[in-house]
Write a structure and sequence with these properties.
Immunoglobulin-like, 31% helix
């Protein structure tokens, strides 16, 4: 044959071995191609799933599910017996507390402060007298109140009118800003 000049057996071996290499490469490329396709399908599937999860998290964030301030209960309480917080209101200009005094004696309230913000004055102005069983509306004019929820410690300094001793009552307020 004219394709294999000279020693036909040598050319035949070279031809068949090179064809085997070509066939192996073709088969290997097919295998590599199938592996690449499987990898791309895997990545695309997980990519779409991650995208869906991110969209769901974004929607929940937009709806306010991740705002813990909405789930914190509003409360106003004092740690010592004798003072009760009957009602309260917080807005951006200040805090209003409707307090009851049940110490069993008359006191002179000398100062009411909130730890979280600076307050310029109280209404009624301090000092003022509270008898046992009295209820008093105290309005604190404060600056720096912002956000959805307000949390602060309350401190009331008072003087016992019978003994003249000064005492301090501590409490806490947690309320939505209206």
């Amino acid at each position: 044959m004219w394709l294999f000049p000279g020693n036909h057996e040598v050319w035949k071996r070279l031809y068949t071995s090179s064809m085997k290499k070509i066939i192996v490469n073709i088969r290997g490329d097919k295998v590599k191609s199938k592996k690449a396709q499987a990898a791309m399908e895997f990545l695309m599937t997980y990519g779409w799933m991650i995208l869906i999860v991110l969209v769901a998290i974004g929607a929940l964030y937009y709806l306010g599910v991740f705002s813990p301030g909405k789930y914190v209960p509003a409360r106003c309480e004092f740690y010592q017996a004798g003072f009760t917080c009957l009602d309260y209101k917080v807005n951006t200009s200040g805090v209003s507390l409707y307090l009851g005094q049940n110490l069993g004696k008359s006191i002179n309230v000398t100062n009411v402060t909130l730890a979280a913000v600076s307050c310029s004055g109280t209404s009624p102005s301090t000092p003022f007298t509270m008898n046992s069983g009295d209820k008093q509306n105290i309005v604190l004019s404060c600056s720096g109140i912002s956000g959805d929820n307000f949390n602060s410690d309350i401190t009331i300094k008072y003087k016992d009118l019978d003994t003249g001793y000064e005492h301090v009552a501590h409490g806490k307020i947690s309320a939505p800003v209206e």
